[in-house]
Amino acid sequence: MTQTPHSETPRTQSLSGGGYSPGHPWYYFLGGKVRGPKSILEDVLASGYQGYRTDIEDACNLVEPKRSEQLRKIKAELLGQYRADLERYREVVWELRKTPTHDRGPDGTVSSAPVHTSAGLKYCHLYNDLAHLIRIHDALSVQGDLFG
Question: What CA–CA distance (Å, rounded) separates 78 from 129?
């Protein structure tokens, strides 16, 4: 089986990010579609991912009213972080749209620009922020045990 050289890659593969996920710089380098906040939320919901923060689980194990207080405190912190990440993601996407998808360096090699890395990283930040917020929302929608 012969492989198609990168320059002859079908355009449809290029539009989808070449098989890479939106969290990877090459996804953007290969022309993958920028995901909006609603699309990122759909990705999180579809995956079932709940994030990496252990303090959410620790807060869930507290008795009421400490449980709800701690969860609300974490939620407020996460909302601030989400807003900051979303603002930066929008800046990166704006910069990404001004950047050619296939840059060649002075030596002729193909490499992704720092903006591709930034876009992938900010996607991951938003993905985690949303996973944590979903997890907190689910925890706050259930009444904790008042007597531990």
Answer: 7
The verdict on whether omega for the bond into residue 65 sits within 30 degrees of 0, i.e. cis, is: yes
Q: Which of 113, 111, 130 is nearest to 47 (CA)?
A: 130
- 71 Cβ contact list (under 8 Å, min separation 6): 56, 59, 60, 136, 139, 140
Phi/psi at 137 (5° precision): -60, -45
pLDDT one digit per residue (tens) for the chain, 148 residues: 333 333 333 333 334 677 899 999 889 888 889 999 999 999 999 999 999 999 999 999 999 899 999 999 999 999 999 999 999 999 999 998 887 655 555 555 555 678 889 999 999 999 999 999 999 999 999 876 555 5
Three-state secondary structure call for residue 103: strand
pTM of the model: 0.79
